[in-house]
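Pilot study result, target chain (496 residues):
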Amino acid sequence: MNQRKVWLLTMLLVTMALISIITGYSHSLKAASSLGKDTLTMITSPDYPPYEFYDTKQGERQIVGFDVDIAKTLAQELGFKLQVIESDFNGLIPALQAKRADFVMAGMTPTPERQKNVDFSIIYYQAKDTIVAPKNSNLKQTKDLAFKKVGVQLGTIQEQNAKKIAQKVTGIQLKQLNRVPEIIQEIKSGRIDAAIVEDTVARGFAQANPDLEFNVIPSDEVSGSAIAFPKGSGLVKPFNKVLQQMKSKKELEKLVTKWFSQTRATATSSKPPAKNELNLDFTRIIPDIPFILKGIPLTLLFTLLSVFLGLIWGTVLSLCKITGIKPFTWLANAYTSVFRGTPLLLQLALVYYATPQLTGYDISALEAGVLTFTLNSGAYMSETIRGGIQAVDKGQTEAAMSMGVPYHLMMWDIILPQALKNILPALVNETIGLLKDSALVSTIGVVEILRSAQIVGANKYIYFEPLLFAGFIYYILVMGLTRSASVLERKLRQSE
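Predicted structure:
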């Protein structure tokens, strides 16, 4: 009888364990099934080591870091796959509102202003603000910042905290910049006196720049990093539950040890630069050159597509302007006026962030860049092409019309070839402009040449070497394009 009871008790325990396992597994898939998809998209700003940054070893293009490891664990526990995309920090919340991503992880602090627009998880990491300043500057406390110029990163909690400090300390002038590396260079160049930066990031820059120091700002307010979600997202509760589990199992502590204890400032100079010297050392970026070079094909693809499509669109607009039909002429002139009268960066942001909300189509960063540059360059090219067409001898048109050549054939076979030959130098200049302006697409997450160089600089806590190398690449590409255009122009002259 006792054996039977033991056997029944054993079976009961086994059954309960199986039910628990099955229930837990079904719970992990509950969030995935409720959203109707199996992949979560995380958006971040990968220029903030050790939270998130690119692994540039051997040219790899993989975003890694403290936040990424946490996101992978969250996705795995909840039964999702994970996709990571990027943007500038001040574009993260707009991207979330435009439904380009399911959540943001970028060392972001849940402030009251942000909570009006997005929902946040619980705090998963506590951080402190620091004052970064030149050594021996005696800028160690907030009161020391009186009548000083102080740099902060645009859109961060440090910017808001600095504004609160400025209300208490007289004479503080704040300067907002997009990235922390730019702030550090402003300190080193003497344009600002100090900066307010998070302690984990400040430590890396202080190690890489021995002429700088940082001091923690005491604070009674509880702040730290949390995950941001669109308003009303069903992911908040599941994410909070997994984060609590990671805290109780001390998994977060292990990740903190993994990422925050290692020194990212490898291959950097150990002595401070002499006064009025840049202390350039290009050997520091040699391992990362393949990573920067991988931006070349994307830059060329973007430029060629924009030029080709812009030429077609510009031709259409120019024909509308000279056709003599007033509605077409008015529309073409109005279009040109709008696109030449507004900043290209504004147009890029509107196309990238507004398209998903207006049309429901999740336009990629590359598609948004090509579309914006096509629409913009078409407006400029239309005036160039119109001038080229009108420069063609009117006798050509009159002769074709007298022979009964249809208008569209006359324009395609007779007028346009001559016009394009005349405006070739102007088209080359437009192409060169597009090649250099392609750096603007880095603001929406396209990792082209300049963005690649900025990523390397952020990872190595250096500034000038990767940017100068990127400038050298642009120069080679422009010279190659100029040389090719000169050869083509000579051949066209020989055929006359």
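One observation from the pilot: The longest strand covers residues 39-44. A full batch analysis is planned for the follow-on phase.
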